[in-house]
């Protein structure tokens, strides 16, 4: 593909002025997320609990007979009891009078529990988050708000028991899904409900909305990329969006139909697929394709699940921790290659794309480091949301570019169709002209053949008759026929005649014929050189008109004198034949076109776009005025 076309693909015209808009949109989204992360503070009337008695036991009630251990909250099992998987009981005590005002309902707020919890107040079960046995309900990202009924709260010391079911760090791919319990808050429900709703929206509802958007957008883009092979990068981006939406489902899908080992294995299996989609999207978007990458990435999608199966459920975390950096480095290398290609083409969209990819990389790095260090903060929550939000923005931009490309293609198609129609019309016109030229050439060749036949055959025979005939009448008729044949042959050849030569020929013939008839002839024509030419047809037709006019003078006028004049003025040639004969008889008055060849004279003049006028009266002679436009007479017949 030429570099110019590659530049148009990598540097769409719509981004030439969109750098500022994209940065503004990214800033707006990030600011919005930061605002969301600033949760409303709990009221001072609520009490935060940061310590509890803990006992590892799977009993139905708090095992008071077992020795309890005082632990700090939040309690992360990866640190406090590494390798433990099962249930842990937590016990804490509180007094109600200092927490509530008159007739105000109290509540327990659990910001995070992994994976599930049951809450008992003074030995009574108040709340169950779901299944406590495999498959355990996944509530790691669901904050819990448990109402504390006033009828179960005593005036003195009250006991809260929490039974938490979780998994060891070694059995999960991410430390965030290891067992644990956050700090607790007890206070008026009206105070804790907004905090719970805020965190629920941030950790569950917003990821659900983003996942749904990615799923719909990814499916649509996968279809677009599958239909158009030249837009294959859209198909890979669609796979990336759908895969990310499935991975993000762990944030809000609480009851998957698999046990923990199967769910974690399936989740890890999706990660090399996401890597494949990310790398291929960046490479195809840069109009680059590598054969070894096409082979290595699918093999990796088989190799990673195989290593996890070989390692077993108890070493899942350690094995996944080796794969995570390797997969991340592959995506970073593809992003660096794409940006280098974009920078080499000096694209104005380099900085927006660089900013987008850097922010996504920073968000993923922040999320990974927070998991390794066990940090959970507002920045961590922002990092979890930033990457899918940027994917949504990039997807919208790709759809916009695709729409504009379709519009451009439609316009180009319409323009091409118009050009094809114009070219077809031009070809048809040329074909018609060629056909006409061919007909003219064939006609001209046939004319020349007929002229040659007339000249060689008929002319020779007529000339023999002229010189051998003993009859003067036959000889005269043969001579006239020979002259008429020569005139016809001259017309058939199609050769133009100089006007000055035509006047000379006409003068010689007219004077000769009138002199033989005993009629005094007077000829006048311009003395200067005449540059005009006559077509063969015009010369022949004019000659025949003059012959007819002279024949009328000789045969019918009884004239003793005849004058002919030729004048050129205003682009016309005018020939006037005037005699002093008897004129047109009275019986032919008003019917001149029917006698003395007048009709043929006028018809021939009309064919040349001219006119032939006859003026006559008994005893006053006859005047014939022939007017021909030179611009018509000089055109080829």
Write the SSE topology.
Blueprint: H1 3-10, H2 19-37, E1 47-49, E2 51-56, E3 69-72, E4 75-76, H3 77-80, E5 86-95, E6 106-110, E7 113-114, E8 116-121, E9 124-128, E10 144-148, E11 157-166, E12 180-181, E13 184-188, H4 189-227, H5 232-248, H6 260-285, H7 291-311, H8 316-344, H9 350-373, H10 378-468, H11 472-493, E14 497-498, H12 499-516, E15 520-524, E16 533-534, H13 536-557, E17 561-569, E18 572-579, H14 598-607, E19 611-616, E20 622-629, H15 630-633
Parallel strand pairs: 15-17
Antiparallel strand pairs: 1-13, 2-3, 2-5, 4-12, 5-11, 6-10, 6-13, 7-12, 8-9, 8-11, 14-16, 17-18, 18-20, 19-20
Write a short abstract of this structure:
The protein is an alpha+beta fold. The protein is built from 15 helices and 20 strands.
Structural commentary:
The model is unreliable at 1-44 (pLDDT under 50). The chain folds into three domains: 3-38 and 226-402, no CATH class; 47-199, Galactose-binding domain-like (Jelly Rolls), CATH 2.60.120.260; 496-633, Histidine kinase-like ATPase, C-terminal domain (Heat Shock Protein 90, 2-Layer Sandwich), CATH 3.30.565. The chain has 637 residues and is α+β, with helices and mostly antiparallel strands. It has a six-stranded antiparallel β-sheet, with no helix packed on it. A five-stranded mixed β-sheet has the order 15-17-18-20-19. The protein has a four-stranded antiparallel β-sheet with strand order 1-13-6-10, with helices on one face. α5 (232-248) runs antiparallel to α6 (260-285), α10 (378-468) packs antiparallel against α11 (472-493) and α11 packs antiparallel against α13 (536-557). Helices cover 56% and strands 16% of the residues. It contains 15 helices and 20 strands. The two termini are 57 Å apart.
């Amino acid at each position: 593909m030429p570099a110019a076309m590659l530049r148009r693909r990598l540097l769409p015209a719509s981004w030439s002025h969109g750098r500022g808009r994209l940065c503004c949109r990214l800033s707006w989204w990030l600011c919005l997320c930061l605002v969301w992360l600033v949760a409303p503070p709990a009221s001072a009337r609520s009490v935060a609990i940061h310590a509890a008695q803990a006992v590892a036991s799977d009993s139905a009630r708090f095992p008071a007979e077992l020795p309890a251990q005082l632990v700090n909250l939040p309690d992360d099992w990866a640190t406090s009891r590494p390798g433990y998987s099962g249930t842990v009981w937590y016990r804490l005590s509180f007094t109600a009078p200092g927490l509530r005002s008159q007739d105000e309902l109290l509540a327990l707020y659990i910001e995070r529990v992994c994976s599930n919890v049951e809450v008992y107040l003074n030995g009574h079960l108040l709340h169950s988050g779901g299944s406590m046995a495999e498959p355990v309900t996944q509530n790691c990202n669901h904050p819990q708000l448990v109402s504390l009924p006033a009828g179960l709260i005593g005036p003195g010391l009250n006991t809260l028991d929490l039974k938490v079911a979780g998994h060891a760090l070694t059995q999960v791919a991410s430390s965030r899904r290891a067992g644990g319990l956050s700090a607790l808050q007890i206070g008026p429900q009206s105070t804790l409900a907004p905090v719970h709703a805020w965190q629920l929206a941030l950790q569950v509802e917003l990821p659900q909305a983003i996942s749904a958007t990615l799923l719909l957008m990814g499916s649509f883009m996968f279809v677009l990329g599958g239909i158009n092979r030249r837009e294959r990068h859209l198909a890979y981006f669609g796979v990336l969006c759908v895969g990310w939406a499935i991975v993000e489902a762990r944030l809000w899908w609480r009851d998957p139909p698999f046990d923990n080992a199967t769910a974690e294995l399936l989740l890890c299996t999706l990660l090399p697929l996401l890597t494949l989609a990310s790398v291929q999207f960046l490479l195809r978007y840069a109009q680059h394709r590598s054969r070894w990458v096409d082979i290595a990435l699918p093999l990796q999608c088989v190799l990673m699940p195989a290593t996890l199966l070989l390692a077993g459920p108890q070493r899942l975390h350690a094995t996944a921790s080796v794969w995570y950096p390797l997969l991340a480095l592959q995506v970073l290398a593809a992003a660096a290659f794409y940006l280098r290609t974009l920078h080499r083409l000096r694209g104005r969209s380099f900085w927006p794309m660089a900013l987008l990819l850097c922010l996504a990389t920073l968000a993923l790095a922040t999320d990974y480091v927070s998991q390794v260090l066990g940090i959970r903060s507002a920045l961590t929550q922002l990092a979890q949301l930033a990457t899918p939000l940027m994917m949504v923005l990039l997807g919208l931009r790709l759809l916009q570019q695709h729409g504009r490309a379709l519009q451009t293609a439609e316009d180009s198609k319409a323009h091409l169709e118009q050009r094809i129609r114009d070219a077809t019309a031009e070809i048809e016109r040329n074909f018609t002209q060629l056909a006409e030229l061919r007909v003219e050439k064939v006609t001209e060749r046939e004319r020349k053949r007929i002229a040659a036949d007339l000249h060689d055959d008929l002319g020779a025979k007529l000339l023999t008759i002229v010189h051998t005939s003993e009859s003067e009448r036959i000889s005269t008729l043969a001579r006239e026929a020979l002259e008429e044949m020569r005139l016809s042959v001259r017309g058939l050849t199609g050769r133009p005649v100089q006007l000055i030569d035509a006047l000379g020929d006409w003068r010689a013939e007219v004077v000769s014929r009138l002199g033989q008839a005993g009629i005094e002839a007077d000829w006048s024509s311009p003395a200067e050189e005449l540059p005009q030419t006559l077509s063969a047809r015009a010369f022949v037709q004019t000659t025949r008109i003059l012959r007819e006019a002279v024949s009328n003078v000789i045969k019918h006028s009884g004239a003793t004198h005849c004058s002919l004049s030729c004048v050129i003025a205003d682009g016309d040639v005018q020939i006037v034949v005037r005699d002093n004969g008897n004129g047109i008889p009275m019986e032919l008055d008003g019917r001149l076109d029917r006698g003395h060849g007048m009709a043929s004279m006028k018809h021939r003049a009309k064919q040349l776009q001219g006119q032939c006028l006859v003026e006559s009266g008994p005893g006053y002679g006859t005047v014939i005025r022939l007017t021909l436009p030179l611009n018509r007479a000089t055109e080829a017949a």
